[in-house]
Design a protein that fits this description.
rod-shaped, about 80 residues, single chain, mainly alpha
Length: about 80
């Protein structure tokens, strides 16, 4: 693009320049490899997201159980106080 810039005060490239500019693409085999890698990484992201959601659920359940245990008076404690 550096060779395609025009202007005096502000250099820029217009839309017509982009239409005529060649855009290099990797060979088809490399494109397929890139797509396969992106698919594998997206699957990993999905698994990590599911794992985080499960961890949040487990953490919430554990917190509820701990609070229930801490706030519920024990029958033995009440009987001993009588």
């Amino acid at each position: 693009m550096a060779g395609e810039t025009k202007g005096v005060a502000l250099q820029g490239v217009n839309v017509g320049d982009f239409r005529t500019m060649p855009i290099p693409l990797p060979p088809l085999a490399e494109q397929h490899r890139i797509v396969a890698k992106v698919d594998a990484l997206m699957a990993l992201c999905d698994r990590l997201e599911a794992s985080l959601a499960q961890a949040d659920t487990t953490r919430s359940r554990l917190l509820e159980a701990l609070l229930q245990e801490a706030l519920t008076p024990k029958i033995e404690t009440l009987e001993a106080a009588e």
